[in-house]
Design goal:
It is a single chain. The protein has about 250 residues and is α/β, with parallel strands linked by helices. The protein has two domains: about 1-80 and about 165-248, Rossmann fold (3-Layer(aba) Sandwich); about 90-165, no CATH class. It has nine helices and ten strands. Strands 6-7-8-3-9-10 form a six-stranded mixed sheet, with helices on both faces. The chain has a four-stranded antiparallel sheet with strand order 2-1-4-5, with helices on one face.
């Protein structure tokens, strides 16, 4: 059995009278790629937000490496090595790729913002290496805002890796990306998992992508955990087919 790095147990979250997540339990094994899918409005992004500290849960527990984190702030959780990327990129459009990378240096080892620490030669080498890793070496001196949306997503992914996370929550990494770039991004995600040992927990709408990427997939529908299993099991689960095609 794989070691569990993230344990979500009986988690519920509501906004006013609207239940976004209800009694959800998911284990994410260390060093693996785990998927989270479901129709629009099924509560996927809400669950990710709760894990990284964006909004406190109403009940249940969230443990990262055995430590309860459900009442911790975003920065505290990030310092433990757990980061999230978003559907819409969060880059600094007026800075070039290298500067974006340098501002993303690890925050785990100190309480000051990286911008207060003068970059070392090693920081530049690491930034250039990761930009090369995601295929942006030739674009590194361009303003990030001038990059295509797909390239901005690759930059955001490189920025996350610059922070040396042990685990990344990726919220729809391929959304809005030109289909010709998607396979390259999938390869980069797999390589980050294999070469750097980063555990990935991925929300994805593109079924082909998630079936090619994840070893285990969890399905949410109407705020509840509907099904969990291998890609093959999920594809053949009548409840999943009904949730996507049954008009719910």
């Amino acid at each position: 059995m794989s070691e569990i790095i993230l344990e979500i147990k009986n988690v519920s979250k509501s906004y006013g009278g609207v239940i976004a997540n209800q009694n959800i339990s998911i284990n994410v094994p260390k060093g693996k790629i785990t998927g989270l899918i479901g129709p629009n409005g099924s509560g996927k992004s809400t669950l990710f937000g709760s894990v990284v500290g964006n909004h406190p849960i109403n009940s249940g527990t969230i443990k990262y490496k055995g430590k309860e984190i459900s009442h911790m702030r975003v920065g505290e959780i990030a310092r433990l090595g757990l980061l999230r990327t978003f559907q819409q990129t969060r880059i600094y459009g007026e800075m070039d790729g290298v500067k974006n990378m340098l501002i993303s240096r690890p925050i785990r080892h100190h309480n000051l913002m990286p911008s207060f620490h003068r970059p070392h030669k090693d920081d530049y080498e690491k930034a250039n290496s990761l930009l090369d890793f995601v295929g942006l070496s030739s674009k590194k001196h361009l303003l990030a805002g001038s990059l295509s949306f797909g390239q901005q997503k690759l930059l955001e992914f490189a920025m996350a890796l610059m922070n040396e996370p042990e685990m990344l929550l990726l919220d729809e990494p391929t959304a809005g990306i030109n289909p010709t770039l998607i396979n390259g991004l999938i390869d980069r995600l797999k390589a980050a998992n294999e070469e750097f040992g980063v555990t990935l927990f991925v929300i994805e709408h593109n079924m082909r992508v998630i079936m090619n990427l994840a070893e285990e997939i969890h399905v949410l529908a109407n705020g509840k955990l509907l099904s969990s299993g291998s890609p093959e099991e999920i594809q053949n689960d009548p409840r999943v087919i009904e949730a996507y095609l049954g008009g719910h």
